């Protein structure tokens, strides 16, 4: 099983449709069952959100290590970021 998501960008079409296009040119069209423009926007932004969160998390870990801030990686937001990244990547 491949645990990597299709890299972005993903695009929201008018209505509740999301286009997921891979670099190889394969395209998937997802239609949300409910009328939810907000859900469609969030799904379309998912690859960029994951990349940004992962970058911030790694930068913060580096800062913690460089400044010898023992235990700081266990604060609420660091734990939440680590859990969200793990949930997204499997």
Commentary on this structure:
By secondary structure, the protein is an alpha+beta fold. It has one domain (10-89). The chain contains two helices and three strands. It has helices at residues 37-66, 76-89, and strands at residues 10-12, 17-21, 27-31. It has a three-stranded antiparallel beta sheet, with helices on one face. Helix 1 (37-66) crosses helix 2. The protein is elongated, with a radius of gyration of 17 Å. The mean pLDDT is 80.
Question: Helical stretch count?
Answer: 2
As residue ranges, the low-confidence spans are none
User: What's the alpha carbon Rg, rounded to whole Å?
Assistant: 17 Å
Reading side by side through the largest sheet, how are the strands ordered?
Answer: 1-2-3
Give helix % range. Answer: 40-55%
Total beta strand runs: 3
Hey, roughly how much beta strand do the residues contain?
5-15%
Largest sheet: 3 strands, antiparallel
What string, H for helix and E for strand, traces the elements in order?
EEEHH
SSE-based structural type = alpha+beta
Residue-averaged pLDDT, rounded? 80
Number of domains: 1
Shape summary? elongated
Q: Distance between the terminal alpha carbons, to the nearest Å?
A: 11 Å
Oligomer: single chain
């Amino acid at each position: 099983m491949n645990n990597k998501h299709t890299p972005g960008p993903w695009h929201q079409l008018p209505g509740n449709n999301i286009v997921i296009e891979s670099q190889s040119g394969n395209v998937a069209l997802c239609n949300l069952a409910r009328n939810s423009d907000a859900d469609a926007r969030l799904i379309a932004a998912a690859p960029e959100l994951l990349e940004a969160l992962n970058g911030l998390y790694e930068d913060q870990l580096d800062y913690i290590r460089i400044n010898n801030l023992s235990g700081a990686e266990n604060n609420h937001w660091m734990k939440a970021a680590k859990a969200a990244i793990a949930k997204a990547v499997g």
